[in-house]
């Protein structure tokens, strides 16, 4: 598609709406968000500026490629809140809201203080939603981990944007592989891709170099939207743009999570694990499971 000629706002709106619907989107709020990104001229009369034209054709091309609209708008809606997101972080999914609901119902019935650990926090959607909704979070400890420093930065951004200051202070973020802290001296030598391709023997050696997170309270709730998609299943094209480590099932994550739970049990902790598992994209399905150790 050539863009040598000037494009009127009316034609631009039509082109964008057509591409928007063709990509399978229906929400006019999302379409409005795209308008605000592309059309910077407040008057929006006559023809697009050169800058607006470039933005329009870029967005049209991205929509044609099934590039997730959340990465274009930097917005992801989850549990009634608007989270900031950047490519290629895992996009919060409505099915995962049930982890929040399950955790809130569990915590509401607790009389003793607990440590809540969100493993693989990504944008922080789960732990931030829990912190925002809890009536009295002060007696509990809240920890979020991720192997990606980029993810932790975005999680902190969302905590700052969505939580009152006192609740922000309750959240501890850790750069970690599952729940084993990656310290500064090792971070430069640990490649994420290499970790997820490592053998079980290599993972054991790695974990011996890392410090496991020690919760403050004896009672621990681990929550995780663990990777569980199967490589043998064909998913929508948009899935390929998201962080693959956060999507596809891998034994390194699963085995390390088991080791961490075993470590806590040996230290005298009582552990509850709440996680989402076995989701299919088409038709969409998943379930929330709870294990007690």
Could you explain the architecture of this structure?
This protein is an alpha/beta fold. The chain has 2 domains: about 10-65, no CATH class; about 90-290, 3-Layer(aba) Sandwich (Rossmann fold). It is about 40% helix and about 20% strand. It has 12 helices and 10 strands. An 8-stranded mixed sheet has the order 7-6-5-4-3-8-9-10, with helices on one face. Strands 1-2 form a two-stranded antiparallel sheet. Helix 1 runs parallel beside helix 3 (about 50-65) and helix 5 (about 95-110) packs parallel to helix 6 (about 125-135). The longest helix has 16 residues, at about 250-265.
CATH topology of the largest domain: Rossmann fold
Give the topology string: H per helix, E per strand.
Answer: HHHHEEHEHEHHEEHHHEEHEE
Radius of gyration, CA atoms, in whole angstroms: 21 Å
CATH class of the largest domain reads Alpha Beta
Low-confidence stretches: none
Principal-axes shape call: elongated
Taking all residues together, what is the mean pLDDT? 91
Could you state the CATH homologous superfamily of the largest domain? Answer: Vaccinia Virus protein VP39
Tell me the span between the first and last alpha carbons: 59 Å
Give a quick account of the main beta sheet: strands, pairing sense, barrel closure.
Answer: 8 strands, mixed
């Amino acid at each position: 598609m050539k863009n040598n000629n000037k494009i009127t706002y009316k034609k631009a709106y039509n082109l964008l709406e057509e591409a928007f619907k063709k990509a399978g989107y229906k929400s006019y709020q999302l379409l409005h968000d795209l308008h605000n990104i592309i059309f910077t001229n407040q008057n929006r009369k006559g023809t697009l500026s050169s800058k607006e034209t470039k933005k329009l054709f870029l967005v049209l091309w991205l929509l044609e490629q099934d590039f997730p609209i959340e990465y274009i708008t930097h917005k992801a809606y989850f549990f009634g809140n608007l989270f900031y997101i950047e490519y290629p972080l895992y996009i919060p999914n409505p099915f995962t809201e049930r982890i929040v609901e399950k955790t809130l119902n569990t915590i509401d019935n607790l009389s003793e203080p607990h440590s809540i650990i969100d493993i693989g926090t990504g944008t922080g959607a789960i732990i931030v939603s829990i912190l925002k909704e809890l009536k009295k979070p002060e007696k509990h400890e809240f920890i979020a981990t991720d192997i990606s420093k980029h993810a932790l930065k975005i999680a902190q951004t969302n905590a700052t944007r969505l939580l009152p200051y006192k609740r922000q202070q309750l959240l501890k973020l850790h750069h970690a592989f599952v729940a084993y802290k990656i310290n500064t001296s090792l971070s430069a030598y640990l490649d994420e891709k290499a970790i997820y391709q490592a053998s079980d023997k290599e993972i054991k050696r790695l974990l011996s170099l890392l410090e496991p997170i020690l919760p403050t309270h004896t009672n621990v709730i681990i929550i995780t939207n663990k990777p569980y998609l199967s490589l043998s299943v064909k998913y929508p094209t948009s899935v390929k743009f998201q962080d693959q480590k956060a999507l596809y099932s891998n034994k390194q994550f699963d085995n390390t999570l088991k080791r961490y739970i075993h470590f806590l049990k040996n230290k005298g902790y009582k552990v509850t694990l709440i996680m989402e598992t076995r989701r299919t994209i088409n038709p969409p399905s998943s379930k929330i499971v709870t294990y007690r150790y």
